[in-house]
Amino acid sequence: MPRPRNQYDPERFGRLDGLLPQPEGRITRRQSELPKELEISGLPEGKWVARGVYRMERRFMYGRAYGLSALEAPAESGRLLARWGGSGSPLFLDTETTGLSGGTGTYAFLIGLGICGGDALRVIQLFLAGPTWERDWLAAIEEELPEEFSLVTYNGRAFDLPLLRTRYTLARAVPLWEKSAHLDLLTLARHFYKGRLSSCSLSSIERNILGLHRSAEDVPGSEIPWMYTQFLRSSDAAPLAGIFYHNVLDIVSLAAFQRHIAKVTLGGGSCASDMLRAGDLWAGAGDYERAERLWRMALDFPRDRHLALLRLAEKERSAGNFEAAYACYKESLETERRPVRTLETMAKIEEHRFRRCEEALALATEALRWLERHRIFKDRRWEEDRKNLLHRIERLKRKIAAKECGGDIFAEEEEL
């Protein structure tokens, strides 16, 4: 028997919604006369700030070597990335959790906060000794936050912040950072390095971009939930030293990578791909003047020079500067490995803008010959390109024969 449809009862579901915790405001610590300290061995230097909540702090002086470069004050690089959520008061945040899948059954037991000091990056860690004291742990986080800040994370938009938000909701509270600006560096890492690196994980960025290699003390992220579960059974925190180390380096690497990304975004890259993708980033933000400047800088690199020319050609064509666009397309042909699309685009400009059908026919024919010579690339794209070119060639021949080249100059505006 089919299930009845349209049986939604707003009143019934409204009552169920009322059973869920509703945020009420800032979180506060519970009042307790019990001592803050717990009988836990093996913790590194730090202090108990609430029952079940242990605080550690380390300072990383600006100017010290970190990978291939020196650690710098993050404020300036944060301001340079303001269009993507950065600011001059970055707060770097990373959590370690009891699982990697999220959900209400997963909670964070360690948070690292990177706060910009006058002469050093302060990395504050708050360790939760067990779920019983989570409310005090959440309150302790808020007590560490500076008056002004914007969040900087790595995949925090998809993992860290939703997970923390859930824990606050269960405690009937709204996090202080809820409406803060947020820069997720994973988004920028993928923009610049997807397809160039085998992985855009933070560990891959450290090795391949920052030149940082962690010591054997580090713990793989996949092992962290299991290690914390073992701690809950033993109350021995000594085996967690690698997790604390892992979390600290994650925070410092965020500060170092923010600086690197800001540098590349402003044209301080070391290859054409850096310049091209930096230009693409600014074009996506609507700053086409800065984008063009970066694309032109990419012309100084022989490798991928044609990609810069194609971007410049597209910009000129969009602005209606077809002579300049045509010149860029023509120059790009000298180094393109698969020139079919460029030849076809030049043919469109010849036919519909310059009204020179013979030249358009010659370009379309050259593109078809290239395809026929390179049947090794025969795939769906190859078949579509060939079909389109054959159609264009036949139409151009008819126009030339009828001496009506060009026709309506806007007849194929969408192709241009």
What would your notes on this structure say?
- This protein has 416 residues and is α+β, with helices and mostly antiparallel strands.
- The strands form two sheets. It has a seven-stranded mixed beta sheet, sandwiched between helices.
- A hairpin with a 3-residue loop joins strand 6 and strand 7.
- Helix 9 packs antiparallel against helix 10.
- The longest helix has 25 residues.
- The two termini are 57 Å apart.
Percent of residues in helical segments? Answer: 40-55%
Enumerate the strands of the largest sheet in spatial order, edge to edge or round the barrel: 1-2-7-6-5-8-9
Major pleated sheet: 7 strands, mixed
Question: How big is the Rg?
Answer: 29 Å
Number of helices: 15
The mean pLDDT is 90
Q: Output the structural class.
A: alpha+beta
Tally the beta strands.
Answer: 9
Strand content: 5-15%
* Through-space gap between termini: 57 Å
Question: What's the overall geometry?
Answer: elongated
Uncertain residue ranges: 1-17, 408-414
| SSE run | HEEEEHEEEHEHEHHHHHHHHHHH
